[in-house]
């Protein structure tokens, strides 16, 4: 048994080094020669590799690999389900999930995460709700944060923020992903009060949450609030990124006051986004100065951006 484990680990290491389909097929032959073709652990690794080659149709070689295992374990089922959930068609992922349930094989949290993600991407609320019911029927996922986060994301993408909030409220434990998913959803809907309440309750605020609040207020014509949140971000020493800067610059443009223009430009330059180094930030600054009535400064920024714009065009070519 110990020698078997050593052999399995060695073959898995070889699989992880594969970079081509031909190499994967050679390793598959090696797996057969060493009588490991019924080992779900090894075959799962091989199947994940082969399904990552997007030029390989899922119905061909990957299905053959799966079908040759007499009693696939939940990880092997999930590897193929996830491949169809990501690459499609989704109907095949669901068919496999149903077959898995018919054989009384318990799905993993990764199984549900893949299917919830696909349901959200397809905006298929009916399917998402059915999967939600399945998590209750199967049981054991009451405290699974990954499944609940995937569920929240699915409901948000399908436009059912109320259901997403219900899932959030019933979670025994939450991480930053749980919070930011809903904060972003509320901000996009324009419900900045709900977004702010959640944001204030978030113990550890990440860049996604800060950006959602700044851009949310700016996009919903509440520039003073956007500036206030951004000031908090700066005071707490959070590293500023390009997207957040564009959001607060947009808010300053709405305020149309030159005092804000000078303040935010200084922050942009001190954060490494000056001298035309960012097309996005530079364009936002031009818009802000134009709305503040300072066309001369807007033109100066444009002149400074010409090198950056040329580099962008050359990279595009």
TrEMBL record:
Record GO terms (molecular function): RNA binding
Pfam families assigned to the protein according to its UniProt record, in alphabetical order: PPR (PF01535)
Entry-linked Gene3D superfamilies: Tetratricopeptide repeat domain
NCBIfam families in UniProt: PPR (TIGR00756)
Descriptive protein name: Pentacotripeptide-repeat region of PRORP domain-containing protein
Keyword Repeat: yes
Keyword Repeat: yes
Native species: Phaseolus angularis
GO terms under biological process: RNA modification
Highest taxon of source: Eukaryota
Record-linked InterPro entries: PPR_At4g14850-like_plant, PPR_rpt, TPR-like_helical_dom_sf
Taxonomy of the source species: Eukaryota, Viridiplantae, Streptophyta, Embryophyta, Tracheophyta
UniProt keywords, alphabetically: Repeat
PPR repeat intervals: 73-107, 144-178, 206-240
